[in-house]
TrEMBL record:
Membrane-crossing residue ranges in chain numbering: 12-33, 91-111, 123-145, 157-187
Pfam families: ECF_trnsprt
Domain of life: Bacteria
Descriptive protein name: ECF transporter S component
Organism field: Carnobacterium inhibens
Length: 197
């Protein structure tokens, strides 16, 4: 009975949050805040919630759903010239999103073993997972498309690292704070409904 209930719980959470990820990608303002060139996101919070609630593997699955959906949007509904080369590349669109799920789940598992306060463990893992997305996406953009990206931004390539660093300190920190506040608030009640042995 426990395994059956656990499977039903997992299927329900994955199904609901997969649907939310898809909606967030395609409905304006629900997933991305339209501040070019990168558009800050809150979708990573959904991935983090899955990792905190169901575990690392399921977080990585939902992260891949996010990345693949982002690629589909870039091919079918490109919002800017950046979509044509940034988000059609699976290395940039998918890998960092999978790593969000991995870092959230892995760090949470380590922290909850070492801390008595579950909320603190959730906050730490949420912040690190959020920053993983920001730093990996920007780092891969710099490595793969640095000169093209600098050209589109109309900045000299030698100044691009400074520009990307500013994005980390503004959008990246904002996204991390949002994740630290919202992800535990959503994950905590979901965990209470998890089937017990």
């Amino acid at each position: 009975m426990y395994q059956k209930n656990k499977s039903a719980y997992r299927t329900a959470i994955l199904g609901i949050l997969t649907a939310i990820i898809i909606i967030q990608n395609f409905v304006p303002l629900l997933g991305y805040i339209p501040i070019p060139p990168l558009n800050p996101t809150i979708i990573h919070i959904t991935v983090i919630v899955v990792s905190l609630t169901l575990g690392t593997k399921d977080g990585m699955i939902i992260g891949s759903v996010w990345g693949i959906t982002r690629m589909v949007k870039a091919f079918t509904m490109p919002a800017s010239p950046f979509d044509y080369f940034l988000w059609r590349n699976p290395i940039i669109a998918v890998i960092p999103r999978i790593m969000v799920g991995f870092v959230a789940g892995y760090v949470y598992n380590i922290c909850k073993k070492r801390m008595k306060n579950d909320s603190t463990a959730m906050i730490i893992s949420s912040v690190l997972a959020s920053l993983t997305n920001t730093i990996m996406v920007l780092g891969l953009i710099y490595i793969i498309y640095g000169e093209t990206y600098a050209s589109l931004l109309e900045v000299d390539f030698s100044n691009l690292l400074g520009v990307l660093g500013t994005v980390v300190l503004t959008s990246g920190i904002g996204e991390a704070i949002a994740a630290a506040i919202i992800a535990p608030i959503i994950a905590r009640p979901l965990k209470k409904f998890r089937p017990q042995k």
